[in-house]
Amino acid sequence: MKRRFFVGLLAAAALCLPVQAARPANFQVDGEFLGVSAYVEEGTTYVPLRELLESLGDWSVWWDGSAGCARAASEDASLSADPDGNLLTVNGTGYPCVIDVVEGQTYVPLRLTAEALGADVRWDPWLGGAAVTSPGAAHDAMDYYWLSRIIHAESGGEVLEGQIAVGNVVLNRVASGDFPDSVPEVIFDDEHGVQFEPVANGTVRSEPTELSREAARRALSGENTAGDALYFFAPALSQGSWIDSSRTYRQTIGCHRFYL
Question: Which CATH number is associated with domain 3-133?
């Protein structure tokens, strides 16, 4: 997502937050950014219940006026969120917590709710919010989110083989002892200067195409078109003199040259 739009979302979200909310936040589920208002208060991220559940699967969500609470059901699970009693109930188990209703939307604690449903939740400092990986998801949400975006920003105009190769370089760096140990840390690594131009110019936050998403999924699943390459550059856009003189050339795919 372009930085201008990203900032606009935060501003819009702030207008919808409860008075006591500390600050707005973002969250994504399985690599899909959810442009809905969420907020962090006293270290807890609160999100709209309906949007969270619908992003996790096939849920029906409704307001039970007689009970004064939100209810939800899927094929194999049930949930209720009682704002008066400050009680979240998932499959018959109660979890005391703060539940709020703002402009007709029921807000629940993200980590508590998601983990009660079997999802994994991680804080993503580069997103400025939480990354949620649903139960049974093929890939970690944070890895998939950022890998698809760097692939798109670096090689969005390339064929699938070339886009997978860019993803391979990132994952090869994760596996190497010479680079950070996670996908987002590799992408945003600046210990020896910014490693990827899209990080410097902000295009790494742009929404990826479906082809770039497919390339990320394939790379994360083990498909490899770049071998052990750790570097690449596009001669039409960069001289790449350091890479040419100090790294071993492997192959060219599309507009990119790949090096070990």
Answer: 3.30.457.10
